[in-house]
What we know:
Radius of gyration: 18 Å
Shape: elongated
Largest sheet: 2 strands, antiparallel
Helix content: 55-70%
Amino acid sequence: MLPGRPWAWPSSPGSREGESALDYTEVLRRLAINDEHFAEECIRRTRVHSVELDPRTLALVRVAALVAVGGAAPSYGVEADAALSAGATTGEIVEVLVGIVSVVGLPSVVAAAPSLALALGCDLEDALEQPAAG
């Protein structure tokens, strides 16, 4: 999102005056003070409508976030399926791991790789038994 660009909320029943467009600083302020109503709206919104990201980008970001928090194995299936459905390729999903190593650290990526491989239908047990391609 560009600085100064309002964060437009979709119309929703019960929305308060002034909540139709929020400046990015207001979004950050509400998150920083742990505004529970706002947080619930954020969760609802990402289920219904991509914030300012296209669905493919949002799905790839969610895969990266899952790696960063050490998500449960079944979650990788859900997020990988969402990314594929949104138009990402399996190669792009794997590139997410490579792209975040310097941020989340190699141990997090190594821990996530088997779960993501399983989610993408890759049998790592067979792959680990084969010599590395060089």
